[in-house]
């Protein structure tokens, strides 16, 4: 992507004023997208994004600059300008490059550029057609396709030279059901770090029926009651609560600044002993997986919580320096415009010993949160508020009537302590996570589990 001699000269320019470490991140991304509204093609587009990010460590701080002009003169200029902000005075020079070899855990068996737009449109229309056929209250469908192919080069003054190719693809299917006075929307978004072959295992007609049925069901549902009660949260996207309310608080971005409720809890019991939580970027083909992170570190399986005890944090190179700890392969960024920081990959609560039916039957009264939505979180305190998109009351150990308008309100550390039953059916779903280093693909997941006495927002 760039000549080694040029990269070496850029790194030397970056270190010219005394920085202790310099890094070059080169990216070339090709993106394709297709959007259908009501089975009609709304948009088909392609884009290329190419540029370079240059980072310099200044003690335990960093200077970052980026450009999409990759001419030699401009790269040297940008590196020197960034170096001008460095206050440290070390004698660091660039080591000889050693090429990093690593296993490719997410190969693209069917490259995206071998698939016609017609094939993609026909695939998406299966979902739209099925959604409209499910119920006459379905008034709109939206079916979207995305593929992203990225080549990166990561080189640094320690002598690292790493090149990687990343492929990810996703479909987003949604349906709107309309009544006399309101609308309800449901959506699904399967994705993976794979080529177009990923869609061989996706039943688009079933996705269309699924979102249509959920939207119609919630349209006629009554409102959820409010107050503290037991809440059973389903597997898959239910893991968004752990991701947001707890996972972000385990990232070194906040921990290194002591801006996390868990910053001083390593080695201590922070959850019910039945809880084990993992962040694993090595899972082949998964949406949040990576061969290497955006600092050139090997992807890892990090056990964050083991039997209720906080085992480790997610650590990038700079925050590891601040904490006196090694990177956990967690440095990630949206693209070359962002400096990397500690981020999640595929984050989930591990399977437990209970059966899902036994958890429901053991709950005399409560809420069954079948599908979670978005919400707001304060990582420093763990306080959160999440919407429940599809919910049902539990009465006498059985799932009863559907309810809408429910939200879950609480604190991450309290939820971890109040999980008292975990099923054996862990699954994951896909999302995009936003933070200091931009928006990145992440998986969230968990088995079906029960949280005791969580505050439900609804109508009294």
Topology readout:
Blueprint: H1 4-14, E1 21-37, E2 40-58, E3 61-67, H2 72-83, E4 98-99, H3 117-134, E5 138-156, E6 160-178, E7 183-188, E8 191-192, H4 204-219, E9 222-223, E10 227-233, H5 240-247, H6 252-255, E11 277-280, E12 301-306, E13 309-310, H7 317-323, E14 331-332, E15 341-342, E16 346-349, H8 356-361, E17 365-378, E18 383-395, E19 398-404, E20 407-411, H9 412-418, E21 419-422, E22 427-435, E23 438-446, E24 449-457
Parallel strand pairs: 4-6, 9-19, 10-17, 16-23
Antiparallel strand pairs: 1-2, 1-5, 2-3, 5-6, 6-7, 6-8, 10-24, 11-12, 11-16, 12-13, 14-15, 17-18, 18-19, 18-20, 20-24, 21-24, 22-23
Helix pairs in contact: 1-2, 3-4
Structure description:
With 460 residues, this protein is an alpha+beta fold. The chain has 2 domains: 112-149 and 166-221, PmbA/TldD superfamily (PmbA/TldD fold); 227-457, no CATH class. It has 9 helices and 24 strands. The chain has helices spanning 4-14, 72-83, 117-134, 204-219, 240-247, 252-255, 317-323, 356-361, 412-418, and strands spanning 21-37, 40-58, 61-67, 98-99, 138-156, 160-178, 183-188, 191-192, 222-223, 227-233, 277-280, 301-306, 309-310, 331-332, 341-342, 346-349, 365-378, 383-395, 398-404, 407-411, 419-422, 427-435, 438-446, 449-457. The strands form 4 sheets. Strands 1, 2, 3, 4, 5, 6, 7 and 8 form an 8-stranded mixed beta sheet that branches. The protein is globular. The N and C termini lie far apart (61 Å). 50% of the residues are buried. The model has no long low-confidence stretch (mean pLDDT 96).
